[in-house]
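User: Fold this; tokens only.

Assistant: Input:
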Amino acid sequence: MTDRAANPARALAKGDGLSLATGECLRPPSRELAQRLSGKDEVLLLWHPEIDRVELSVSDVTTGEGFHIAVEPGTAMDAFHHPYAYAARRESAYHPVRAETTIADG
């Protein structure tokens, strides 16, 4: 597996919510619900209890590039197993289709 310090999503998942400067609890830790490595892609399913949000994180372990998207709890496992298909469906859902404007004489 990858080093959590080298990967922001893994560091976030490991985060204990403590401030390094004061030791005070800033927020509850994010929870890693599922993790897998597929080729050079690391796929994480994270839950952020402070905002009750589930997030899908996909990162290239060699470059650190990737994406994070919020997922509905009911589709979380589908998103985890098919992250690129899920992301493509989400992206197409958020691009509004512009209606063509018809200019009429008169």
